[in-house]
Design a protein that fits this description.
heterodimer; A: about 280 residues; mainly alpha; about 0% strand; globular; B: about 325 residues; alpha/beta; Rossmann fold; Alpha-Beta Plaits; six-stranded mixed beta sheet; five-stranded antiparallel beta sheet; 12 helices; elongated; binds adenosine-5'-triphosphate; binds magnesium ion
C-alpha cells in the first residue's frame, strides 16, 4: 500500500548538487568573501598603476615588480599574495561550514530524514566546497587579467630565465598556474570537511582549518623540520612558479599534486568514517 | 520504576508475524546511553499500530526526542532494535524514510532562504521525489499549514509559530504513511494548536499513522487513539487511550449546603463508597460498583440538598501521577 514512490530517480544526484551549489554560491557571506578576494588584484593593480613612475621596480616580491611591465603578472602576483593567508581563510570558512553549518542550524537532521544517505551528502558537500574554492581562485584570476589588461596591457611574458614567450603561450602558462593553485586547495578543502564533521560549531571548524594551513606554512619554514616538510599541506603551494620556467620541472609539480591527493585521501576517509557513524543530536 | 509495556489488546499474544504487519512502529529493548553516561532511553518496547494516532507523552527530559531520533536513524541505539513501517532502522532508511514525514525537536531551516525555497531545498535532496511536481507540492503543503501568504518571506523573518508551520509543511511535502511529530504545537497560538489538532485528525482519517510527542497531556489527550507514557527513559504504560483512562477508578463528587455535608457523607459511607472526603461544600468518594443514580436517589431520600453531582474518570495526568507518585512536570 505504498503511496510514495521510493525508488531513486535518475538525475537526483545532479539535482541535489545543483541545490548545494546554489546554496553555497548564492549565500551572501560567501559572495562577500569572493568580492573581497577580487579586491586584491584590483587594489594591487591600482596601487602599482599610481606609483609606477616612482622607482618601485625590482622591489617587493619578485612577481609584484614585474606587474607594471605586463598585466598578466597581476594574476600571478595576486595569487602569490593571497596564498599564505587570504585564500586559506576564505576556503577554510566555506569548507569548515559545510557540515557544521547545517548541524548548527539543525537542517542536518532534516536532510538526513528526507532521507539523504550520509555518504552522498558528504560527497555533495565536498563538491560545494570545492566549487567555492575554484570560484575563489578563478575570481582572483579573472579580475587580475581584466585589471592587468586595463592598467598595464597584456603582452608575451618574460620567463624567470629571461626568455620571452609570445602572448598566447603566456596566457596558457598563467592559466596553468591558476589551475595548479586551484588543485593545491583541494587538500585544505578535505581538512575543512573533516573538521566540519567533528563539531556543531561552524566557527570552530573554520578556525581549525585556517590554523592547519597557517601552521603548515610556518613549520615549512623551519630548517629543523626539513625531514617532515615535504609532507606538509603547504609545501608545494608556491611551486606554481615552475610554469614560469622555460622547462617546468614536472617532477616537482607532480609531487605537489600527489601531496594534495594524499591529504584528500586521508582527510576524506577520516571525514567519511566520522560522518557516516556519528550520532546527529543537534 | 519498572518498565511495564502493555499491549493494545488485553488478550495480547498475537502471532509475531501478523502483529508486525499491523504495526507502523515497533521497538524492542530500544536503549540509548550517551557518552556522558546518561541513559536517555532505557529499553523501551513501543507498539504503534497502523492507523493510530499515538500520543507519546512524558515530562521534559524523559527521552521522547532521543527515541524519535533513534526511530529516524539519526542516533544509533546502544542496544535494542527499531522497526519503522516494517524496515529495520537505520539500515532500511533509504526505502522507509521517504514514506515518513518528521518534525524533530522543532523546525530548522536556512534563515536566508524563503519558506518556499527551503521546501525546494528539501525536495531537491529527496532522490525519490519528482522534480516536475516540486513547486506544486510545496505550494500545496504551504497552503495546508496556512503559510501561503508568507511563502516568499525569508525564514529569518518568520515568527515562532510560522516556523513551526513551515516544519509541518516540510513533513507534508509528499503523501506519507507515517508522521512523526515531536512537539508539533510548540510555539503555536491557540488557533494554531487547534489547526494542528484538526490536521492530525484529518491525516489520521485518511489512514496516516501519527506519532505525536508532547509534554502537555491535555493537548494530546483529545486527538489520540493510543498513548505511551514515558518517564525517566522508561515507557511506563502504553495502549488504547480509552482503555487506559477507563481503567482508572471513577470518583463521584457532589455539592450540597453547609449543614448537609455531614449527612451526605454518611449516606455515601452507608452505600459502601470508599475514600469519602469532604472539602467545603463538596463531598467526594470512590464510586466502586455502585450506580450513580442509586446514590442520588439515596441522597434525596435522606433529605440532602443536592446542588450538583458528577462522576469523573481520571484523566491521563492523574493516571500518570498515580503511576509515578509525582507531578507530571518533573524533569530529570
Ligand atoms: N546529545 C546528548 N548527550 C547527552 N545527553 C543527552 C543528549 N541528548 C539528550 N540527552 C539527555 O537525555 C535525556 C532525554 O532527553 P530528550 O531530549 O530525549 O528528552 P525529551 O523527552 O524530548 O524532553 P523534552 O520534553 O524537554 O523535549 C535528557 O536527560 C537529556 O539531558
Ligand atoms: Mg524533546
Amino acid at each position: 500500500m505504498s503511496l510514495v514512490e521510493v525508488a531513486p530517480r535518475r538525475g537526483s544526484l545532479l539535482r541535489l548538487v545543483r541545490s548545494e551549489l546554489r546554496l553555497v554560491l548564492g549565500r551572501r557571506r560567501n559572495i562577500v568573501l569572493l568580492v573581497g578576494l577580487s579586491l586584491v588584484p584590483l587594489l594591487l593593480g591600482t596601487v602599482l598603476f599610481l606609483t609606477q613612475d616612482t622607482a618601485l621596480d625590482g622591489q617587493g616580491p619578485g612577481f609584484v615588480g614585474r606587474v607594471t611591465g605586463n598585466g598578466l603578472f597581476l594574476v600571478i602576483a595576486s595569487l602569490f599574495l593571497c596564498l599564505p593567508f587570504l585564500l586559506p581563510l576564505t576556503i577554510g570558512i566555506a569548507s569548515g561550514d559545510a557540515i557544521a553549518g547545517e548541524a548548527s542550524a539543525g537542517t542536518l537532521r532534516y536532510l538526513l530524514t528526507v532521507p539523504v544517505a550520509r555518504g552522498r551528502l558528504l560527497a555533495v558537500k565536498a563538491v560545494g566546497a570545492l566549487a567555492f574554492a575554484a570560484s575563489a581562485v578563478t575570481a582572483i584570476a579573472i579580475v587580475g587579467v581584466v585589471a592587468g589588461a586595463a592598467f598595464f596591457g597584456l603582452r608575451g611574458i618574460t620567463l624567470l630565465s629571461g626568455t620571452t614567450v609570445p602572448l598566447g603561450d603566456g596566457i596558457l602558462r598563467v592559466a596553468a598556474v591558476v589551475v595548479y593553485v586551484g588543485l593545491s586547495m583541494t587538500g585544505l578543502v578535505a581538512v575543512g570537511l573533516f573538521f566540519s564533521t567533528l563539531t556543531e560549531v561552524p566557527v570552530g571548524a573554520m578556525a581549525a582549518t585556517v590554523v592547519t594551513a597557517i601552521v603548515c606554512g610556518v613549520l615549512d619554514q623551519l630548517p629543523q623540520l626539513a625531514t617532515i616538510a615535504p609532507a606538509l599541506l603547504t609545501h608545494h603551494w608556491l611551486d606554481f612558479a615552475e610554469f614560469l620556467r622555460l622547462e617546468p620541472d614536472w617532477g616537482v609539480l607532480g609531487q605537489g599534486l600527489a601531496l594534495q591527493a594524499a591529504w584528500v585521501a586521508i582527510f576524506g576517509a577520516l571525514a567519511w568514517s566520522r560522518f557516516t557513524t556519528a550520532d546527529v543530536s543537534s | 520504576m519498572t518498565d511495564r509495556p502493555t499491549g493494545a489488546a488485553p488478550s495480547g499474544a498475537a502471532p509475531v508475524a501478523s502483529e508486525d504487519a499491523d504495526l507502523a512502529i515497533r521497538t524492542d529493548g530500544l536503549t540509548k546511553r550517551f557518552r556522558s553516561g546518561q541513559v536517555a532511553v532505557a529499553g523501551i518496547d513501543l507498539r504503534v499500530p497502523r492507523g493510530a494516532v499515538y500520543g507519546f507523552i512524558g515530562p521534559n527530559g524523559s527521552g521522547k526526542t532521543t527515541t524519535i531520533r533513534m526511530l529516524l536513524g539519526l542516533v544509533r541505539p546502544t542496544s535494542g532494535r527499531a522497526h519503522l513501517l516494517g524496515g529495520a532502522m537505520p539500515e532500511a532508511g533509504a526505502g522507509v524514510l521517504p514514506r515518513v514525514g518528521a518534525l524533530v525537536e522543532g523546525p530548522a531551516f536556512h534563515p536566508y532562504l524563503t519558506g518556499r525555497a527551503n521546501l525546494g531545498r528539501l525536495d531537491a535532496s529527496d532522490a525519490t521525489a519528482d522534480p516536475r511536481t516540486a513547486r506544486q507540492r510545496a505550494d500545496e503543503a504551504l497552503e495546508r499549514v496556512g503559510l501561503a501568504a508568507a511563502a516568499a518571506k525569508p525564514y529569518r523573518q518568520y515568527s515562532l509559530g510560522m516556523k513551526q508551520r513551515l516544519g509541518l509543511a516540510a513533513a507534508l511535502l509528499r503523501p506519507r504513511e507515517l508522521l512523526v511529530l515531536d512537539e508539533p504545537t510548540n510555539g503555536l497560538d491557540p488557533q494554531g494548536t487547534r489547526e494542528v489538532r484538526n490536521l492530525v485528525r484529518e491525516l489520521a482519517d485518511h489512514g496516516t499513522t501519527v506519532l505525536v510527542s508532547s509534554h502537555l497531556l491535555a493537548e494530546i489527550e483529545q486527538v489520540c487513539s493510543h498513548v505511551g507514557i514515558m518517564s525517566g527513559g522508561h515507557l511506563l504504560l502504553q495502549g488504547d487511550r480509552a482503555e487506559l483512562t477507563g481503567r482508572g477508578l471513577p470518583r463521584l463528587s457532589l455539592q450540597t449546603s453547609a449543614d448537609h455535608v455531614g449527612a451526605a457523607a454518611e449516606v455515601l459511607t452507608g452505600l459502601g463508597l470508599t475514600d469519602v472526603q469532604t472539602a467545603g461544600h463538596t463531598v467526594s468518594a470512590l464510586l466502586g460498583a455502585v450506580p450513580p443514580e442509586k446514590v442520588s436517589a439515596a441522597l434525596v431520600h435522606a433529605g440532602v440538598d443536592l446542588l450538583g453531582l458528577e462522576v469523573r474518570r481520571p484523566n491521563l495526568e492523574q493516571i500518570f501521577v498515580e503511576l509515578t507518585g509525582e507531578g507530571f512536570d518533573v524533569a530529570r
